[in-house]
Design goal:
Rossmann fold, globular
Length: 208
Protein backbone atom coordinates (compact mmCIF):
# COMPACT_ATOMS: atom_id res chain seq x y z
CA UNK A 1 0.00 0.00 0.00
CA UNK A 2 1.38 3.40 -0.99
CA UNK A 3 1.55 6.08 1.67
CA UNK A 4 2.40 9.77 1.42
CA UNK A 5 4.72 11.93 3.53
CA UNK A 6 4.81 15.66 2.82
CA UNK A 7 7.59 17.82 4.26
CA UNK A 8 7.95 21.57 4.47
CA UNK A 9 11.39 22.73 3.27
CA UNK A 10 12.52 25.83 5.20
CA UNK A 11 13.38 24.99 8.82
CA UNK A 12 12.20 21.41 8.25
CA UNK A 13 14.15 19.57 5.53
CA UNK A 14 16.60 22.49 5.51
CA UNK A 15 18.08 24.08 8.63
CA UNK A 16 17.10 27.73 8.19
CA UNK A 17 15.00 30.04 6.02
CA UNK A 18 16.05 30.47 2.37
CA UNK A 19 14.83 34.07 2.25
CA UNK A 20 16.99 34.96 5.22
CA UNK A 21 20.10 33.57 3.51
CA UNK A 22 19.31 35.84 0.52
CA UNK A 23 18.65 38.80 2.81
CA UNK A 24 21.98 38.40 4.59
CA UNK A 25 23.71 38.68 1.21
CA UNK A 26 22.03 42.09 0.83
CA UNK A 27 22.65 43.19 4.43
CA UNK A 28 18.95 43.14 5.37
CA UNK A 29 18.88 39.89 7.35
CA UNK A 30 17.22 41.21 10.51
CA UNK A 31 14.56 43.12 8.57
CA UNK A 32 13.49 39.99 6.66
CA UNK A 33 13.78 37.69 9.70
CA UNK A 34 11.33 39.83 11.68
CA UNK A 35 8.69 39.41 8.95
CA UNK A 36 9.40 35.68 8.56
CA UNK A 37 9.01 35.10 12.31
CA UNK A 38 5.65 36.88 12.40
CA UNK A 39 4.39 34.91 9.39
CA UNK A 40 5.48 31.56 10.85
CA UNK A 41 3.71 32.38 14.12
CA UNK A 42 0.54 33.05 12.13
CA UNK A 43 0.52 36.78 12.92
CA UNK A 44 0.81 37.83 9.26
CA UNK A 45 -0.95 36.66 6.11
CA UNK A 46 1.54 34.39 4.33
CA UNK A 47 0.97 35.84 0.84
CA UNK A 48 1.52 39.40 2.05
CA UNK A 49 4.62 38.45 4.02
CA UNK A 50 6.09 36.47 1.10
CA UNK A 51 5.57 39.20 -1.49
CA UNK A 52 6.94 41.85 0.86
CA UNK A 53 10.08 39.86 1.66
CA UNK A 54 10.73 38.98 -2.00
CA UNK A 55 10.35 42.64 -3.01
CA UNK A 56 13.44 43.42 -0.89
CA UNK A 57 15.48 41.05 -3.07
CA UNK A 58 15.15 43.12 -6.24
CA UNK A 59 18.48 43.34 -8.05
CA UNK A 60 20.03 40.20 -6.56
CA UNK A 61 21.65 38.16 -9.34
CA UNK A 62 20.14 34.77 -10.20
CA UNK A 63 23.69 33.39 -10.21
CA UNK A 64 24.05 34.39 -6.53
CA UNK A 65 20.55 33.01 -5.77
CA UNK A 66 21.46 29.59 -7.18
CA UNK A 67 24.84 29.64 -5.45
CA UNK A 68 23.12 30.27 -2.08
CA UNK A 69 20.36 27.74 -2.77
CA UNK A 70 22.79 24.96 -3.63
CA UNK A 71 24.80 25.47 -0.44
CA UNK A 72 21.91 25.57 2.05
CA UNK A 73 22.40 23.34 5.12
CA UNK A 74 20.21 20.26 5.27
CA UNK A 75 18.52 19.48 8.57
CA UNK A 76 20.14 16.74 10.64
CA UNK A 77 18.53 13.42 9.67
CA UNK A 78 17.05 14.67 6.37
CA UNK A 79 18.63 12.00 4.20
CA UNK A 80 17.84 9.25 6.73
CA UNK A 81 14.17 10.18 7.04
CA UNK A 82 13.58 10.33 3.28
CA UNK A 83 15.24 6.98 2.61
CA UNK A 84 13.69 5.40 5.71
CA UNK A 85 10.14 6.47 4.82
CA UNK A 86 10.55 5.32 1.22
CA UNK A 87 11.61 1.88 2.50
CA UNK A 88 8.36 1.82 4.49
CA UNK A 89 6.33 2.44 1.32
CA UNK A 90 5.94 6.21 1.47
CA UNK A 91 6.12 8.61 -1.44
CA UNK A 92 8.08 11.54 0.02
CA UNK A 93 7.28 15.01 -1.29
CA UNK A 94 8.31 18.55 -0.38
CA UNK A 95 5.89 21.52 -0.33
CA UNK A 96 7.71 24.82 0.10
CA UNK A 97 6.57 28.41 0.44
CA UNK A 98 10.14 29.07 -0.67
CA UNK A 99 11.64 28.60 -4.11
CA UNK A 100 12.31 25.93 -6.72
CA UNK A 101 15.92 27.09 -7.04
CA UNK A 102 16.42 25.28 -3.73
CA UNK A 103 13.77 22.53 -3.74
CA UNK A 104 14.59 21.20 -7.23
CA UNK A 105 18.26 20.92 -6.32
CA UNK A 106 17.66 19.23 -2.95
CA UNK A 107 14.80 17.16 -4.36
CA UNK A 108 17.36 15.47 -6.61
CA UNK A 109 19.97 15.29 -3.88
CA UNK A 110 17.60 13.66 -1.37
CA UNK A 111 15.79 11.48 -3.92
CA UNK A 112 12.38 13.01 -3.23
CA UNK A 113 9.40 11.73 -5.22
CA UNK A 114 8.32 15.29 -5.95
CA UNK A 115 8.69 18.93 -4.91
CA UNK A 116 6.44 21.95 -5.23
CA UNK A 117 7.55 25.53 -4.54
CA UNK A 118 7.31 29.12 -5.74
CA UNK A 119 9.28 30.72 -8.57
CA UNK A 120 11.31 33.92 -8.40
CA UNK A 121 10.82 36.20 -11.39
CA UNK A 122 14.08 36.97 -13.18
CA UNK A 123 14.83 39.55 -15.89
CA UNK A 124 18.25 40.04 -17.48
CA UNK A 125 19.87 37.84 -14.85
CA UNK A 126 18.49 39.78 -11.86
CA UNK A 127 15.56 39.24 -9.51
CA UNK A 128 12.72 41.69 -10.20
CA UNK A 129 11.35 41.43 -6.67
CA UNK A 130 8.31 39.49 -7.86
CA UNK A 131 7.26 35.91 -7.16
CA UNK A 132 4.63 33.47 -8.38
CA UNK A 133 3.67 29.84 -7.91
CA UNK A 134 1.48 27.26 -6.23
CA UNK A 135 2.61 27.84 -2.63
CA UNK A 136 1.78 31.52 -2.13
CA UNK A 137 -1.14 31.42 0.31
CA UNK A 138 -2.02 30.27 3.83
CA UNK A 139 -4.02 27.31 2.50
CA UNK A 140 -1.80 26.42 -0.50
CA UNK A 141 -0.14 23.38 1.05
CA UNK A 142 -3.43 21.86 2.18
CA UNK A 143 -4.98 22.36 -1.26
CA UNK A 144 -1.97 20.81 -2.99
CA UNK A 145 -1.98 17.88 -0.57
CA UNK A 146 -5.64 17.21 -1.34
CA UNK A 147 -4.91 17.26 -5.09
CA UNK A 148 -1.97 14.90 -4.66
CA UNK A 149 -4.03 12.47 -2.58
CA UNK A 150 -6.68 12.35 -5.29
CA UNK A 151 -4.09 11.88 -8.01
CA UNK A 152 -2.29 9.06 -6.16
CA UNK A 153 -5.44 7.61 -4.58
CA UNK A 154 -4.00 7.94 -1.07
CA UNK A 155 -6.27 8.57 1.92
CA UNK A 156 -5.63 10.93 4.87
CA UNK A 157 -5.21 7.77 6.98
CA UNK A 158 -2.08 6.95 4.98
CA UNK A 159 -0.72 10.51 4.94
CA UNK A 160 1.90 12.20 7.11
CA UNK A 161 2.49 15.98 7.08
CA UNK A 162 5.60 17.53 8.63
CA UNK A 163 6.23 21.22 9.18
CA UNK A 164 7.27 23.98 11.57
CA UNK A 165 5.18 27.08 10.84
CA UNK A 166 1.69 28.49 10.41
CA UNK A 167 1.62 27.98 6.63
CA UNK A 168 1.97 24.20 7.24
CA UNK A 169 -1.26 24.13 9.25
CA UNK A 170 -3.50 23.67 6.22
CA UNK A 171 -1.90 20.25 5.55
CA UNK A 172 -2.88 18.89 8.93
CA UNK A 173 -6.59 18.41 8.27
CA UNK A 174 -5.75 16.02 5.41
CA UNK A 175 -3.19 13.92 7.33
CA UNK A 176 -3.62 11.38 10.12
CA UNK A 177 0.00 11.89 11.22
CA UNK A 178 0.52 15.58 11.93
CA UNK A 179 4.15 16.25 12.86
CA UNK A 180 5.25 19.55 14.41
CA UNK A 181 9.04 19.62 14.00
CA UNK A 182 10.83 22.18 16.22
CA UNK A 183 7.69 24.15 15.51
CA UNK A 184 5.92 27.37 16.40
CA UNK A 185 3.18 27.04 19.09
CA UNK A 186 0.35 27.40 16.53
CA UNK A 187 1.48 24.19 14.79
CA UNK A 188 2.23 22.25 17.98
CA UNK A 189 -1.30 22.89 19.22
CA UNK A 190 -2.70 21.12 16.15
CA UNK A 191 -0.16 18.27 15.91
CA UNK A 192 -0.42 14.72 17.23
CA UNK A 193 3.35 14.15 16.97
CA UNK A 194 5.68 16.80 18.41
CA UNK A 195 9.46 16.57 17.93
CA UNK A 196 11.57 19.17 19.73
CA UNK A 197 15.01 17.83 18.83
CA UNK A 198 16.66 18.89 15.56
CA UNK A 199 16.81 15.37 14.15
CA UNK A 200 14.39 14.40 11.38
CA UNK A 201 15.25 10.71 11.67
CA UNK A 202 13.19 10.65 14.92
CA UNK A 203 10.11 10.75 12.69
CA UNK A 204 10.84 7.16 11.65
CA UNK A 205 9.75 6.09 15.15
CA UNK A 206 6.20 7.13 14.25
CA UNK A 207 6.01 5.62 10.75
CA UNK A 208 4.78 2.07 10.46
Amino acid sequence: MTKLAVFDFDSTLMDGETLEFFARELGIGEKVKAITDKAMRGELDFFESLTERVSFLKGLSIQKVDEICHSLPLMNGAEEVVKGLQKKGYKVVCFSGGFRNATAYFGDKLGLNGEFANILHVKEGLLTGQVGGEMMFNDSKGQMLLRLQKLLNISPDNTMAVGDGANDLSMFKFASKRVAFCAKPILKENANIVIEEKDLSLILNYAE
